[in-house]
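Assess this one:

_____
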Amino acid sequence: MKIYKAGAERTETLNSADELEAINAYAKTELKAEQVYTFSVVLCDNEVDRDYEKFSDEALCQLAGLFVGRTGIFDHDWKAANQTARIYRTEIVREKNILNSVGEPYAVLKGYAYMLRNEKNAELIEEIDAGIKKETSVGCSVSRRICSICREEAGPNGCGHVPGHEYDGKLCYLELYDANDAYEWSFVAVPAQRAAGVVKRFGGAGTLKDFIKSAEGVKYSAEYEALEKDAVLGREYTGALRNEVLRLSMLCDPKIFEALSDNTKGMGARELECLKEAFEKQLEDKFPLRTQLPGRDKMVSFDGDEYMV
């Protein structure tokens, strides 16, 4: 899952010659202190963002390693000509006296970057020093998103909890785990999100939700929300239908129940309805309804024995 997270609006310049050794690990020719300009940026943090997602501490630590050596560009425009800086080291900074919105110690992933002091970069360096160029955004990939309410992994069918809603006073959000790649980090003109917000881009590895949050897709947000509500109802109906099918299968044959326990999880409503109908027919044949009284206009002999207790 490809995501774009906006970094905090903070940069600082670093002029220590001690940084040169780490920088020169990425240079083909040895650079001197007067040739490079260094600065630090907050790449991402562990705050709940506007998409109601947050990086876990595990993911932040994984990204700390993945972002070393990654290039800095502009507006996530993946062009070689757009490369302007490179991260040569990172660190996790934990603020002991500051808590994030869910009560955890606030932590940020800080990157240290360098660029060449030349005519091409002179204007950018001046803007960084003046605090004009300071908003950043990272492009990375994570494998798992865990619901904060039930701790189940978010997937195509979901768990039924809606990020951004509260359940018994507890906010639902998705915590990101298993960061497996870091693509780049960018200077962005106007971040669409707050300090650890998300800058989503809809593409081959994106999702419909990503598109709805984009400038092109926002006009479909009302329709999307209505469909999302219908989807929740559909999942509830399918879940109830699945339980009924398993109940009927147990009545028919416990062995059938054992065989279906796991298989029904992947079945849709139509398949479950067909199974339910088949089990009901089998049970009707196996346990036909019997009445104590004869049908209308039907004469039977009666001696009272049928009602003896």
